[in-house]
Design brief:
five-stranded mixed beta sheet; 16-stranded antiparallel beta sheet; elongated; Ubiquitin-like (UB roll); mainly beta; about 15% helix
Length: about 800
């Protein structure tokens, strides 16, 4: 009884090379598929079978069986006998037949440890003869230029010291070819070779012929009437090749990318009312010179549709259809947009969850009416099976403690599974700044649980450096030369504590500060911290210089998932001096040394979809400080800031910003010049720092204002450059005003006559332009090119502004 199956490669001899002093030979083989030889001709194939062949044919034999009393293994060098025997589907003492022996041969082959297996029954003794698969000594790539060896090593699955099999090699060949195909080299070929070494080892060589890179000569659209070719070309990802676009990565032919482009076209049209739009065909034709492809999309735009009847059907009596209908923004008669349908599903899910029904299944049905060009919507709301969270596992955090991540989550073990809360938790975790962005650096996935009705959650994070030792030097049009030395750690000892120290010096301002923040003070959802600072300020555009030293104490309370209350106390000592000695009258300017003791708070609301790079939502910040709790200064300072974001596409985000503030003295006090507002530069582009607001026209000095309001409209411009270049471009328009100084500053204190040289009005200022932000290796750099649209005649303007700083 004999069964054998040989896994042997059909190879052709390529070369023979010396293997070294041992005298053994190393042979190089090219792996290739060769069809098996035809079976040997038998009597029937050669001619007419003998007439008595049927009579001479042996009668079928009964299956042979044997009892295995002993198993002998031979041919193995690395794998011991007991390991091989353990793979068999039977053991000593079992009764076996031909089928069981054949199953044993197949089982040993499936381990990938053997290239040949033979099993023979010698009476009751089973003899297993094996030929072990070689071990890979090294994996070598030859002929690669467009792809690095590191990139290729990451792509293949075969590794040194692994078991060599032809199937694995062929799989890796296809992976390498696919990698080249996606980079535009569709003619690339890969030839695998092996070099036989002593001791059943082989070197595996992938010989690569990369072939030419195929570009895109044109991207054409046929059948489009509603939208121009240029608008559709900006919608698809594939771009036409140009010789000067050295860093472009989407200007080569890729069939997978064409499928993606078809979907992008569908989304583009269906979000503009074309419900029955379809791409009839997408064809890529090779140009006669065989260097490029001409890509053509044939479109059927169809007709524009509006939304028709909106109906909500629910099988839960506690979820009223009329209440759910108010939660969605779609109204009959509005232009059909496919994205709004999905948004309506999200809004209904949130509304049901807010009413205590987190486990709902909402499925929209679209019923088109071609005659009236309307799409009726029916939202079927069903209460789904309740699922609860069994375990939450944190993985990928080598530095950050688990508890730091867990306290950012809005759910915990035992809570009901809630998709909306998990998405928000993902944003909060990414908002720590310890990990990569929410898309890549934080992932929350469901894992099976052994408990019925429960699911496990896996929170996978990818940490990024949180400590920084910086030494920077820069130049700006305002500060001139800047020197910055700092050390920071935003995740101190993995506990989430923030520790920062910095020394910055420039021609205008010098700062030394140290801060510490504990985000979870006394194991409660309360942050606490303190600040120590010392600064000096001396700007030629104003008539004073100041030196300040102080300390600040602060707390932070989370009111809910999107609002934070932060009370604080500050004690500051200021020393003020003036360029003009006559300007110091002691009442209005408070020359010399003064103490400010103030208590205040910040109330922050944040409903942005991402704290790092928001594309949707809004946030608002209210700040108030009350000075006069001891000290020499008495005032109430109030400031309100708001931001609203709307993203149209990547890097094309509209941001509306409003910022207003006022400082009001009390008990007959006057607001000191260093407590007033100075605007311009970064806060009002197109104007110099302290370039707007009240001014002494006789000297040109800015006096600062007690009230301001500034609004900004900014729209990001896609630049189609890879993210690693760190370039962001935006168009902007700033509109604002600043004014409202103490009336006593406008009157000569000796004569009581109004001073004509003191100008103060709340006239509107406006500017527009383009801003470029670059995250350079030296630190963030910003360029502002502005055109002033409205100003007062005494304002100080600037067309171009350049600033550089060091990240800290």
């Amino acid at each position: 009884m004999t069964r054998s199956r040989s896994l042997s490669f059909s190879v052709s001899l390529f070369a023979i090379v010396a293997a070294g002093a041992s005298g053994a030979e190393a042979r190089t083989w090219i792996l290739q598929d060769v069809p098996p030889p035809p079976p040997a001709p038998d009597a029937a194939a050669q001619g007419q079978a003998p007439a008595d062949a049927q009579a001479q044919a042996p009668a079928p034999q009964a299956p042979q069986t044997a009892v295995v009393t002993h198993i002998t293994v031979s041919g193995n060098e690395r794998i011991d006998n007991q390991t091989i025997i353990s793979y068999l589907p039977f053991q000593t003492g079992a009764t076996v037949d031909d089928q069981m022996i054949d199953l044993a041969v197949k089982t040993l082959y499936r381990t990938d440890l053997f290239s040949d297996v033979q099993i023979v029954m010698n009476g009751n003794e089973m003899v297993i003869t094996v030929v072990e698969s070689p071990i890979i000594n090294q994996v070598v790539f030859e002929g690669n230029h467009a792809q690095t060896k590191d990139k290729l090593r990451d792509e293949v699955q075969i590794r040194p010291r692994g078991v060599f099999t032809k199937a694995k090699v062929q799989e890796d060949v296809q992976r390498i070819i696919e990698l080249y195909r996606k980079s535009g080299r569709i003619a690339a070929t890969v030839t695998p070779k092996i070099v036989e070494l002593p001791q059943k080892r082989v070197d595996l060589i992938f010989e690569i012929n990369e072939g030419p890179k195929t570009g895109v000569s044109s991207v054409n659209f046929i059948g489009n009437k509603a939208f121009a070719d240029s608008e559709l070309a900006s919608t698809v990802v594939t771009r036409k090749s140009y010789w000067w676009k050295f860093f472009a990565s989407q200007d080569n032919y890729d069939p997978d990318r064409m499928d993606y482009d078809r979907e992008q076209l569908r989304k583009f049209y269906t979000n503009r009312g074309y419900y029955d739009f379809r791409v009839i065909s997408a064809v890529a034709e090779l140009t006669p010179d065989r260097k490029n492809f001409a890509i053509s999309y044939t479109l059927d735009e169809g007709q524009k549709y509006n939304f028709g009847r909106i109906t909500i059907k629910t099988d839960n009596d506690k979820l009223k259809s009329e209440d759910l209908l108010r939660a969605i923004s779609i109204k009959p008669g509005q232009l059909y947009e496919s994205d709004r349908v999905q948004k309506a599903v999200d809004d209904l899910t949130f509304a049901a969850g807010a009413n205590g029904f987190a486990f709902v299944d909402i499925r929209p049905d679209e019923e088109p009416d071609p005659n009236n060009h309307k799409v009726d919507l029916v939202f079927n709301v069903h209460e789904g099976a309740r699922v609860y969270i069994d375990k939450i596992n944190i993985v990928g955090n080598t530095q950050t403690l688990d508890r730091v991540i867990r306290r950012q989550m809005l759910v915990s073990e035992g809570d009901a599974y809630n998709k909306a809360l998990l998405e928000r938790s993902k944003i909060y975790i990414a908002g720590l700044g310890f990990f990569k962005n929410a898309e890549d650096g934080v992932k929350i996935t469901e894992k099976p649980s052994t408990s019925p009705g429960k699911t496990n959650l896996e929170v996978a994070v990818q940490e990024q450096p949180t400590g920084e030792l910086s030494f920077g030097a820069g130049f700006s049009s305002i500060q001139k030369f800047i020197l910055d030395i700092g050390i920071s750690q935003s995740n101190f000892r993995g506990t989430g504590q923030d520790v920062r120290a910095r020394i910055q010096t420039g021609s205008i301002q010098k700062d030394i500060d140290f801060s510490f923040t504990e985000p979870h003070f006394m194991n409660r959802d309360v942050s606490a911290g303190f600040d120590l600072f010392e600064s000096s300020y001396n700007y030629s555009g104003v008539d004073y210089s100041s030196d300040s030293t102080g300390i600040g104490l602060r707390l932070g309370y989370n009111l809910n998932g999107w609002a934070v209350f932060r009370p604080r106390y500050n004690l500051r000592r200021d020393k003020i001096s003036y360029t003009s000695a006559s300007a110091c009258d002691g009442l209005l300017y408070n020359c010399g040394t003064g103490i400010t003791s103030s208590v205040g708070y910040t109330l922050q609301f944040d409903l942005r979809n991402d704290f790092i790079n928001p594309t949707r939502g809004w946030n608002a910040i209210l700040r108030q400080d009350f000075a006069g709790l001891g000290g020499d200064v008495k005032y109430v300072r109030s400031e309100l800031e708001g931001n609203w974001f709307h993203g149209f596409k990547k890097d094309m985000v509209l941001r509306l910003t409003g910022d207003a503030g006022s400082i009001i003295p009390w008990n007959g006090d006057a607001v000191r010049i260093n407590d007033r507002y100075f605007k311009g530069g970064d806060t009002m582009r197109g104007f110099q720092y302290a370039g707007i607001g009240p001014r002494d026209t006789s000297t040109g000095y800015a006096l600062g204002g007690q009230t301001y309001a500034i609004g900004t409209v900014e729209l990001g411009i896609p630049n189609h450059l890879p993210d690693q270049y760190g370039l962001k471009t935006a168009l902007f328009m700033d509109v604002g005003t600043l004014g409202g100084i103490d009336k006593r500053l406008k009157i000569n204190t000796s004569t009581g006559v109004k001073l004509d040289n003191i100008v103060d009005d709340l006239s509107l200022r406006a500017s527009a332009g383009i801003t470029i932000r670059w995250k350079s290796p030296m630190g963030p750099i910003q360029f502002d090119l502005s055109q002033v649209l409205a100003k007062s005649k005494y304002d100080k303007v600037e067309t171009f502004r350049f600033s550089q700083s060091t990240q800290f």
